[in-house]
Amino acid sequence: MTLNFFNPNKKKSSGVRRINWLRIIVGLGALAFLIYRAIILITRPTYGSVFWLSFLNTGLIVGGMYALIAIGYTLVYGVMSLINFAHGDIMMLGCFAGFFTFEAFDAWKIGDSNFMNMYPGLAIFLAFLAGTGVSMISGYYLEKIAYRPLRNSPVRLAPLISAVGASIFIETAAQLMFGATKKTYKNPPLLARGSGWNIEMGDGMIVITKTGVFSLILALILMIGLYIFVRKTKLGKSIRAVSQDKNTAQLMGINTDRVASQTFMISGVLAGAAGVMWGIHNGLFNHYVGFLPGIKAFTAAVLGGIGNIPGAMAGGMILGIVESVGPAFLGIDFQLKDVIAFSILIFVLILKPSGLFSKNASTQEKV
Description:
disordered N terminus; mainly alpha; disordered C terminus
């Protein structure tokens, strides 16, 4: 008779039970705290409705940019199972490209005026064309140089380490080429920063800026366009096929290397557009401008379910709103909004690692 005092299956099941209890405790604790804060705000209101609407407006604008960047993360992960931590720096390059385009048009004198004042719509279009083009090309060569040689590496962390190295390299190169001082976007008169519409309300006034409305509408158009593109076009179907089963896609005649390159180019276009939007709306930027938005967009992608395009869109919008409304709701300093964003990442990884819009934590929700 053999006595088996060590039962691996029993230990594993008890570990799972401990994790489930941890999730329940953390979830109930967070829910109780949020209910408590809601009761405090209802019984002793600190801000009026105008302030809450202003926070919501800001959150939607920033959330649209986060969503565009998050889609790039989720596309690359769906096709290559890779977290491209240099994605925020691709956004930064697009921001610089738009900036230099506006600078050139501002210096291009036409009579008593300049090109940007005479043709503001064309200047905006060409700035976005430059920003998306530079980011698209950068994404293409990033995949060729930093990721493709390591795709079949026996070291599983090699692509991730390469991503971190590529991020540092791009930031340092931008600092050496463009300088470390902050720069300011020169917007065309059509999108003058700070201009917009003042809406009178009972307890104050809410300001809707032109740059904010433009950024939000363009972000929504790009997100809807990408979703249709992935669902209806031949390349979109190839991307979905590779994300679902790479080996079967190869047997069906799909060139997976080409699909990977094209996926990086598409994600670069979205990041470049977000970079130009960021510069137009916020004004100040430098070579680190893509770092925090990139990390937060990764948080948004995890929140929505990494590999899930609609989830990345929703996650970006949710994160932007929570980040803007959160400090007022929690009664903390507004400079701590970054803490809220990364706390969300921790809570999601504890409570639902597959994301809010994924059905099963054990199976990846593919593109």
